Amino acid sequence: MRVPLLDLSEQYRSLTALLRTEVEDVFASQIFILGPKVEAFEAAMRRYCDIPHAIGVSSGTDALLAVLMALEIGPGDAVVTTAYTFFATAGCIARVGATPVFVDIDPLTYNISPDGLARYVARECNRNSDGVLVDKAGRKVRAIVPVHLFGLCCEMEEIIALAEGAGLTVIEDAAQAIGAEYPYAGHVAKAGTMSPAGYFSFYPSKNLGAAGDAGMVICRDETLAQKLSICRQHGMEPRYFHRFIGGNFRLDEIQAAILNVKLPHLDEWSAARRGVADRYREEFERRGLTTQIELPAEPFRGRGLNNHHIYHQYVIRTSDRDALLDHLIRNEIGNAIYYPLGLHEQQCFAHLGYSSGDFPETERAARETLALPMYPELRVEQQLFVVDKIEEFFTRTAVH
Ligand SMILES: Cc1ncc(COP(=O)(O)O)c(C=O)c1O
Fold first, then answer.
1. What does the pLDDT read at residue 398?
2. In whole angstroms, what is the distance from residue 83 CA to residue 146 CA?
3. Per residue in 6-44, pLDDT tens?
4. Protein residue with least CA distance to atom 12, ligand 1
5. How far apart are the first and last CA of the chain?
6. Which residues pair with 20 in a beta bridge?
7. Which atom in ligand 1 lies closest to the alpha carbon of residue 201?
8. Would you say residue 399 has pLDDT above 90?
9. pTM score > 0.85 for this model?
10. Are 39 and 257 in contact (CB under 8 A)?
């Protein structure tokens, strides 16, 4: 039995008629960029996130780029983020001329470690005569970008308290976490809404996926929202008068039309993903495999949240990762490593001066983690086949 890591065809089948009508609508209107479909999608996302501003942009990457530009973060500034995330998070920081600063992860959640952050601020930074936080090289530390990796929110209460104490802006990377919830200050908060700016990616494989690239920034502050709207059109306002340097970060109508059809289904898809995760857990536990593999942590389960995890990826950990991966490939079971190398060890960041061993938990996660098939329509028999093959692998390893 072939089990893909992700299969979007079933989702497409269930929505084909509506998707075609909506896309046809765009062709009929001949409005292709930033038109009524984008406006409708922005309004729907404002309602979904219960937030006053949502600015549709061309990708998750461009969303962060636009936020950094709008906040005028650039040369001479440092921005702190996790060493264990998709490249875009740190790539954008570097592209605006700022310096990415990495912090290690929590080994259970794979998200940025609040203790690591606190240590960085306490040991590596000082306040200058203006009271601004600066690092040892004299760079102004401007922001923290926590990444809600795999669909699980970071420990935002601790991160925000730390950021407020240090005078740093928080920008939430919710690219993988749309709809994920966090028990923030006694209420339920959605990923992206807990800080001055949050952003999403609608890359096709995301839980809410477009048919190409698309992204969004959400925020509460009107001035920032206006600046972002201008930023996504080359800093232009009014037409052909450029207030500052932005980019072409516009969202197109076809992507927005598709996202409008899909958004109403997002929560039922997230619930189905959680059902898949629950079945993995039950099966791995029932077969006594949880000594060999570590299952994803669910720190916010039972805290009154629906989307305590949205399982963008279902990531397990085992010290025998590479051999298990070969076994899965031989059995035509989809898998992926997110991510095989920490950002501090990437060639393009060699000039930052980090070394192997700097972030032991990031490095261990890069060696030991593996994503298993996860999508709402994954059938029970497919899932049981995945678990059977993993059980077979560990039974054989135990015999040899
Ligand atoms: C954590 C994270 N940040 C940022 C991005 C960038 O989003 P996009 O691919 O839409 O540019 C991604 C996308 O994969 C991501 O996973």
1. 75
2. 10
3. 999 999 999 999 999 999 999 999 999 999 999 999 999
4. 175
5. 26
6. none
7. 10
8. no
9. yes
10. no
Residue 184 has pLDDT above 80, yes or no: yes
- The closest-lying atom of ligand 1 relative to the alpha carbon of residue 202 is 10
- From 57, 58, 61, 67, give the residue whose CB has the most ligand 1 atoms within 8 Å, as the site to mutate: 61
Query: pLDDT digits over 102-118, tens only?
Result: 999 999 999 999 999 99
- Considering only CA atoms, which residue is closest to atom 10 of ligand 1? 60
50-100: pLDDT as tens digits: 999 999 999 999 999 999 999 999 999 999 999 999 999 999 999 999 999
For tokens 């765009």, the residue is: 26
Q: Residue 88 Cα, ligand 1 centroid: separation in angstroms?
A: 6
Per residue in 204-260, pLDDT (tens digit) is 999 999 999 999 999 999 999 999 999 999 999 999 999 999 999 999 999 999 999
Q: Distance (Å, rounded) from C-alpha 269 to C-alpha 40?
A: 21
